[in-house]
Fold this protein.
Amino acid sequence: MSKFESHIFVCCNRRATENPRGSCDPSGCEKLRNYFKAEITRRGRKPRVRANKAGCLDQCELGPVAVIYPQKTWYGGVGEQDVPRIIQDTVIDGKILEDLLIADEKLNVRK
């Protein structure tokens, strides 16, 4: 098997609804990750691109969060409607989606 072109880690951490930090996967059903997997398959990128469940990426206030490697791109506030353009624009075309990008200075800063 060859190396992955891109490896997408989708936060599937679930916290109690009253937690002030929020939760990337409040339903606990990995819905966002499943959208990524379906879109990867639909575009014929499997097995070169993979979407994996991640535990807490510690960016809860900015979630739902997805991280793409080797690009080292952190996206926050990701919704199912964003998945097709993340796959096309970032994974396939190598472009950054500025509206979803978590700026370096915001990473690992708790509110």
Q: What stands out?
A: The mean pLDDT is 92. Residues 6-106 form a domain with the Glutaredoxin fold (CATH 3.40.30.10). DSSP finds two helices and four strands in the chain. The helical segments are 31-42, 83-92.
